[in-house]
Amino acid sequence: MNSPARLPSLDPRDPAGLNDLLTPDEKAVASSVRQLCAQLTDPYVADWFERGTIPDIRGLTKELGALGVLGMHLEGYGCAGMSATEYGVACLELEATDSGIRSLVSVQGSLAMFAIWKWGSEEQKQRWLPSMAAGEAIGCFGLTEPDVGSDPGNMRTRARRDGDDWVLDGRKMWITNGSVADVAVVWAQTDDGVRGFVVPTDTPGFSAPEIKHKLSLRASVTSELVLDAVRLPADAVFPEVRGLKGPLSCLNEARYGIVWGAMGAARSSLHAAQSYAMERTQFGKPIGAFQLTQQKLADMYLEYTKGVLLALHLGRRKDAGTLRPEQVSLGKLNNVREALDICRTARTVLGANGISLEYPVIRHMNNLESVLTYEGTVEMHTLVVGQAVTGQPAFR
């Protein structure tokens, strides 16, 4: 008889052995992003969150560009051309630092850069994508408006022809990177349907006042975009795409990154609770030795494991070209909801210390309240999944 194989040791930080499912390249991406975050963001992000600012956001963006994570899943124009799963793994590591850092990368690569890469003219691609991939130029994406969120077809921002030029008027709201951006991708109503425009932010009539008094995503720049008779040349418009197909295709890219990223916030909070449970002593022993605390940790690991498995499954489908938008909605709906619950449970393990920025938990918990809403609310993704499984639309 053959002797039984020796079982591998169990990693208490990865009890399901999820890391074994990643390829060597995917592990290398995770390690590289984790090292960058350990050096450039982890030591400072709690202070950034408390102060509501990233002091040198351009310097950070250039470092992210040098690592190759900006538009990393796009081909050509200085982009890294990595797989969707490698991009997802990077998003997990970035959001383990902070949702605001992952948002910076996601808006740059999956919204602004992807829009230009997918729908732009060759001239627009050549002008903007290399510098954006390098982090030398920052982009933002203008779709949401003060009175229009989940129903972008009713946007009020309008672009009209004036001779050969386009003139844009309107407002956009809750725009990540807005007041630091060099270029904005702005979606507007035209006589020919919704169209996208590449707007250099130094164009007269364009302004981006920063939104203050946030209690979530504080380590992230969030702005309003004001377009007051912004005059653009004829070649500023995306040449082919019309209707909501354009912006929704970009949102689907960003939502995919959130499926992974939310699990990074969950992992950070879970690991903080796990460490705390073994260090905090009550009634003569670590609180991790009590059944109720172990139940919390076990339940958190169950949901984290399922969330990463779902993200990995969707990543493999995206790499195979078989990922549907409804499946991304399923992933975003589940993973953000469960990540938020993990953070809330982790907070209870830390007790009063759970509300201190000395630990990452309350910061992740507050951030995920925004992530739960942006790139499609819980209600909208629920209805997308509901229609997928019943065949019946229930949006109106």
What does this protein structure show overall?
The structure is a single chain. With 396 residues, the protein is α+β, with helices and mostly antiparallel strands. The chain has a four-stranded antiparallel β-sheet, covered by helices on one side. It is globular and about 80 Å long.
Topology, element by element:
Blueprint: H1 24-40, H2 45-51, H3 57-67, H4 84-97, H5 99-119, H6 122-133, E1 139-142, E2 158-162, E3 165-176, E4 183-190, E5 193-200, E6 206-207, E7 222-232, H7 245-279, E8 281-282, E9 285-286, H8 291-320, H9 325-350, H10 361-371, H11 378-390
Parallel strand pairs: 1-4
Antiparallel strand pairs: 2-3, 3-7, 4-5, 6-7, 8-9
Helix pairs in contact: 1-3, 1-4, 4-5, 4-7, 4-8, 5-6, 5-7, 7-8, 7-9, 7-10, 8-9, 9-10, 9-11
Write a compact overview of the structure shown.
This protein is an alpha+beta fold and 396 residues long. It has helices at 24-40, 45-51, 57-67, 84-97, 99-119, 122-133, 245-279, 291-320, 325-350, 361-371, 378-390; strands at 139-142, 158-162, 165-176, 183-190, 193-200, 206-207, 222-232, 281-282, 285-286. A hairpin with a 2-residue loop joins strand 2 and strand 3.
Which key features would you list for this structure?
FAD, 50% helix, glutaryl-CoA dehydrogenase activity, 3 domains, alpha+beta, Butyryl-CoA Dehydrogenase, subunit A, domain 2, 11 helices, Butyryl-CoA Dehydrogenase, subunit A, domain 3, four-stranded antiparallel β-sheet, 396 residues, 9 strands, AcylCoA_DH/ox_N_sf, Butyryl-Coa Dehydrogenase, subunit A, domain 1, three-stranded mixed β-sheet
At the fold tier of CATH, the topology name of the largest domain is Butyryl-CoA Dehydrogenase, subunit A, domain 3
User: Mind telling me which CATH architecture of the largest domain this is?
Assistant: Up-down Bundle
Helix coverage percent of residues? Answer: 40-55%
Determine and state the CATH class of the largest domain: Mainly Alpha
| Broad structural category | alpha+beta
Q: How many structural domains can be distinguished in the coordinates?
A: 3
Strand content: 5-15%
Please report the total strand number as a whole number.
9
What order do the SSEs take from the amino end to the carboxyl end, as H and E? Answer: HHHHHHEEEEEEEHEEHHHH
Which superfamily, in CATH terms, is the homologous superfamily of the largest domain? Butyryl-CoA Dehydrogenase, subunit A, domain 3
Q: Biggest β-sheet: count, sense, barrel?
A: 4 strands, antiparallel
Q: What is the assembly state of the chains in this entry? A: single chain
Distance between the termini: 66 Å
Mean pLDDT: 97
Secondary structure tally, helices: 11
